[in-house]
């Protein structure tokens, strides 16, 4: 059961396991953003069996300063950025390779802008040639991901991402309906 932790400013910070949630709750460091989920979790804790079908989102009571970190173009990060989809043919698979758009044999570097997720068939077809030489095209131009893309790690957890987006929409609705509440995301 992954748990999304938000900063007090509602910025996503991390996804933690339920054991870490228990520690944060016992130290009174977090609060639940959904009252019904809070009740379910408290009941589960009393039963000593922590389970929840609903996504769990908690908010830190104190703001945590987050240093800027440059995300590296690792295999995992490239596959997440490209949504586990071959950037040449659109095939979705967990069994993808990485392809250098400008091949390393021709001076290409392992950068965000030069690496894409690629199926084995397309990778073999392209080889160490340029896209125009084999008449292939990218579905999307690759770009670097920065820490400002706060929900980057949420790509691994689609249910949490959806719950977080719904929470933000309801929070924004609350903000527009009642100007005394100030929520900055």
TrEMBL record:
Keywords, ordered alphabetically: Endonuclease, Hydrolase, Nuclease
Domain HNH nuclease: 73-124
Superkingdom of origin organism: Bacteria
InterPro entries assigned to the protein according to its UniProt record, in alphabetical order: HNH_5, HNH_nuc, NA-targeting_endonuclease
GO molecular-function terms, A-Z: endonuclease activity
Protein name (record): HNH endonuclease
Organism whose genome encodes this protein: Dictyobacter arantiisoli
């Amino acid at each position: 059961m992954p748990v999304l932790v938000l900063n007090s400013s509602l910025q996503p910070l991390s996804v933690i396991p339920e054991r870490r949630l228990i520690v944060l709750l016992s130290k009174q460091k977090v609060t639940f953003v959904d009252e019904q989920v809070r009740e379910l979790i408290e009941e589960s804790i009393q039963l000593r069996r922590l389970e929840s079908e609903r996504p769990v989102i908690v908010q830190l009571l104190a703001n945590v300063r987050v240093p800027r970190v440059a995300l590296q173009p690792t295999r995992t990060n490239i596959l997440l950025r490209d949504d586990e989809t071959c950037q040449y043919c659109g095939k979705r698979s967990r069994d993808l390779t990485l392809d250098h758009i400008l091949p390393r044999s021709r001076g290409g570097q392992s950068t965000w802008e030069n690496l894409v997720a690629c199926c084995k068939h397309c990778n073999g077809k392209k080889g160490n040639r340029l896209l125009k030489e084999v008449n292939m095209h990218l579905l999307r131009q690759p770009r670097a991901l920065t820490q400002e893309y706060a929900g980057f790690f949420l790509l691994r957890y689609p249910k949490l991402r959806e719950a977080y987006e719904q929470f933000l929409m309801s929070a924004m609705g609350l903000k527009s309906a009642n100007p005394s509440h100030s929520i900055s995301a």
